[in-house]
Protein: 4-hydroxy-tetrahydrodipicolinate reductase
Amino acid sequence: MAEKIRVVVIGAKGRMGRETVQAILKDEELELVGAVDRTLDGVSVSDVLGVDAGSVQFSNDVEKTLVETKPDVMVDFTTPAVMKGNIDKAIQFGVRPVVGTTGMTPEEIAAWDQACKERGIGGVIAPNFAIGALLMMRFAAEAARFLPHVEIIEMHHDQKLDAPSGTAIKTLELISQAREQMGQGHPNEHESIAGARGGEIEGMRVHSVRLPGYVAHQQVIFGGLGQTLTIRHDSINRESFMPGVVLSCKEVMKYEGMVYGLENLLF
Ligand code: NAP
Structure:
């Protein structure tokens, strides 16, 4: 049998990280070789997460883990503030980053693409690993060709740090490529409460709801004469992201450069 792909998970104690650990343990082609989180060092992954991860222990040191475990892939589900340094370190040590943490700029993605190519490794940055969400974005870009007036409402759990979501930004980028740039709404509209009309990218409005009870949800609403069209995706639990994460850990072994968006590996 072919050698397994060695994977470390950064942010492994978090909501997405622990789901990722379980998905890796279940997959026959992947091997969990390291787990990093901010406050855990030298304790058993099995004990903390209630899984069977053999002798793998938590570390709180990304660099040490990359050096000692020699992984092929580093999965990052941490925070916008620490993810950037982790990606830099992974590339420096020739480890392929698979990143679900959101909150980076196009310039940063371009720089990592260049760095990955120079190092001869692949990388994945995916604002959303759920296949249904990718289909939502694809259908939305198609709809925008015919119904160019569009607004997004995205709903997430109240512990999410960045707004709007990476998925909303990515959806708006895809829509802006599919439609002519245009203004929306009344030219003289005004807000009596600041922010009531939401954020704006190229005339399109985006509204971020943060409440307990939600996981990750998005509606893309198109308006036309006498009609509206709503394309909606719901991640009901975090398992929804795992087929995309597992696929990325395998596909990232096959090319050089940073791929931004799981759709580029799927469609
Ligand atoms: P979370 O539950 O807060 O998990 C983040 C974990 O990272 C926590 O355990 C945190 O530890 C740890 N951490 C913080 N700083 C660290 C550091 N310097 N080194 C190592 N670990 C560190 O967050 P989450 O809900 O899993 O989300 C994580 C990220 O994934 C967010 O950016 C979110 O938007 C994104 N996300 C992406 C997708 C996708 O499909 N791409 C889907 C869902 C979420 P402490 O709690 O002790 O600080």
Observations:
- The CA atoms of residues 125 and 260 lie 5 Å apart.
- The mean pLDDT is 96.
